[in-house]
Amino acid sequence: MTGPPPGPPAAADDITSWHRLHPLSPLVRAGRHLVGITIVLLLLLFARQQQTGNDLIYDLVIIVLVLGAGVVSWLVTRWQVADGVLRIETGLVRRQSRRFPLSQVQAIDVVQTGLARVLGLAELRLRMAGADSSGGRLACLRLADAEQLRQRLLSMARATEAAGARAAPGGAAGASGAAGAVGQPERAVGGPERPLFRVRSERLAGAIALSRTGAFAGVVIAALVAVIVATGRPGITASLLPVVIGVVLAVWRQFNGEFGTVVSAAPEGLRLRSGLVQTTAETIRPGRVQAVRLVEPLVWRAFGWCRLEVDVAGPLLTAAPRPVRRPPPNARWKAPLAYHFLGWDGDDRYVVASRGRVCRKTTWVPLEKVQSIRWIQGPVQRRLGLASVRLDVAGRRVTASITDRDAAEAQQILARLPDLARAAREGSGAARGGRGSRAARGAVNRA
Description:
Layout: H1 25-48, H2 53-75, E1 78-82, E2 85-90, E3 96-101, E4 105-112, H3 114-119, E5 121-128, E6 137-142, H4 143-167, H5 171-183, E7 194-198, H6 201-209, H7 212-231, H8 241-258, E8 262-266, E9 269-274, E10 279-284, E11 289-297, H9 298-301, E12 307-312, E13 343-346, E14 350-355, E15 359-366, E16 370-376, H10 379-384, E17 386-393, E18 399-406, H11 407-435, H12 437-446
């Protein structure tokens, strides 16, 4: 391993040297595991009805081992930012050295668990395009340091991207422009926020109660009550206690994760804040929204509610098309219930597709971010002369399916979309080279 040995945290401005995480990080990281261990120990205690001295010693040994593992992890973990790259090195037996180019950062989150809030700490999470960003975490830093480091990383990412855009055309002018951008210190980002939307807590509670999670919780509670009433013995439900705990945790995670969600527009991108006990402050860089999906469950539609899901990595939507092209009549035989909700449309920048009756989903995908285009035709579709075209985008769950079209129409779509996607990528590259960071700021303002 190269580089100077890590010492105590240096000044906030000196991020090119190696740093350790906060000394209380092991306690915060172990706290997550201790919750699960405590639940298991309580279940064992409830099952045994009593606990001997040896059992108590075993339980304490488990807790000490969890805390010891956290301390070892803290001792062998260090980080630095150099040459536009965040470097995180960790591991005792199996060493890992991970690199995260700031130019590829899609979003940066500041997350605080309940224990971290008490201790004044926070976790910094980086999300990268088309990859699992679970390793891009710094847990934990002081809250003020995490906020300052996030601002520094965002400004450095902006400077790196602007330098690349200036250097793209080539030639002396492009080279000198890039050199000037790199030589200058990164500009600090920050400024007034413009609130766009806020989720009300009462609406969130109602939406969860009317969701699949809420329905499952209601069924479990009703079953427990029915068993107790029928048998007259509450203790008989002890075997269902793990199921009850799992249901309660699922409902709590959803409520805690989405409580008080606020979406704002800021100079450095979209800011999202949410959470009751565990809070999350997320910053999505301008021009990094991969796809936008509008989800409308059946029960929610009666109240005019919907859920907006945003996948990070592409441009923001401006004038998006609507899925007005309906499927052919013979698609009724394959999808009689969902037929009226199947549709698609597109222009030279976006493709939109909708599907689903019980839970209607409408997905907008930028053509410049399309990674692959697939032709799909199942046995029933072949019988009816239908086919589907699916567009895949970088990410774990991003896809848009133009479902149950006439086979000839599907062939035309399959033949046209690659050229449209190529033209969209070329146009986007030229626009980025000409406008630089001004285009990104304009996209946020238009949003």
